[in-house]
Specification:
Layout lengths: L6 E14 L7 E17 L6 E2 L16 E11 L2 E8 L1
Antiparallel strand pairs: 1-2, 2-3, 2-4, 4-5
Organism: Xanthomonas fragariae
Protein name: TonB-dependent receptor
Keywords: Receptor
Length: about 90
């Protein structure tokens, strides 16, 4: 029976910044910025040598896209029971 004995070693930083403005007659506004910075991503599949994959971009599947920096920025607006958001991803 085959066994999966591969391993992944990942290191990095996650950070989130959020800010909400004081409520106005036009509603309340806020922004949230979530980011991840990947410093290490090693895939080890015996009997091969470890494979460093930070910054490796190639087609095929999302599994192969190991971006060094990923970030999401979102702006929110609310007025009573109505609200809207806009988001941008890097």
């Amino acid at each position: 029976m085959p066994r999966n004995i591969a391993s992944i070693e990942a290191e990095g930083f996650d950070f989130t910044f959020g800010y909400r403005l004081q409520e106005t007659a036009w509603g309340s506004f806020s922004v949230v910025w979530d980011s991840t910075y990947l410093t290490k991503f090693i895939v080890e599949k015996p009997p091969q040598e470890p494979d460093e994959r930070v910054g490796l971009y190639r087609g095929g599947s999302a599994r192969d896209n190991n971006w060094r920096l990923r970030s999401n920025l979102m702006g929110n607006w609310e007025l009573g029971d109505v609200g809207s958001s806009v988001a941008m991803r890097y």
